[in-house]
Amino acid sequence: MFANVFYFDFSDDVPLHAVYGEWLLEDGCWNFVVDRFKGARMLFLSEGSTHADLVAMAQEDYSLDMNTESVQLTYTTQQMAPDLPPIHVTSDRQVRTCSR
């Protein structure tokens, strides 16, 4: 099974900057490496959006085959230390918390 990781910039409530790539731990620091072929997309988070909504948007916009690929939603903030791992968004409650 492949894991597709999306970095979401939750700095704005409505537009979500989604980036396709993977997190790598190098020299004790987490770095997000963008997939240069799949790149970035703009998703829109509305009030009441769920984790399933975000996964479905990513799946559709990136034309992912969910039989062979999975979606992981993650983010970091500029205030986080670089040695802290990215935060995984795995539930509706976390989506609501992140979008505030």
Polypeptide structure, described:
Strands 1, 2, 3, 4, 5 and 6 form a 6-stranded mixed sheet that branches. The chain has one domain. The protein is an alpha+beta fold. It is 18% helix and 41% strand. The protein starts with a strand and ends with a helix. Strand 1 and strand 2 (15-26) form a beta hairpin. The mean pLDDT is 83.
Topology at a glance:
Elements: E1 2-9, E2 15-26, E3 29-34, E4 40-44, H1 51-61, E5 69-75, E6 87-89, H2 92-98
Parallel strand pairs: 1-5
Antiparallel strand pairs: 1-2, 2-3, 2-4, 5-6
Structural class: alpha+beta
Shape type: globular
Poorly predicted ranges (pLDDT <50, ≥5 residues)?
A: none
Helix and strand pattern: EEEEHEEH
Terminal CA distance: 33 Å
Summed up, the helix count is 2
- Biggest sheet, open or closed, and with what strands and sense? 6 strands, mixed
Radius of gyration: 13 Å
The figure for the number of domains is 1
Strand content: 35-45%
Helix content class: 10-25%
Tell me how many strands there are. Answer: 6
Mean pLDDT, as a whole number? 83
Supply database-style keywords.
100 residues, 6 strands, 18% helix, alpha+beta
Quick take:
This protein is of the alpha+beta class.
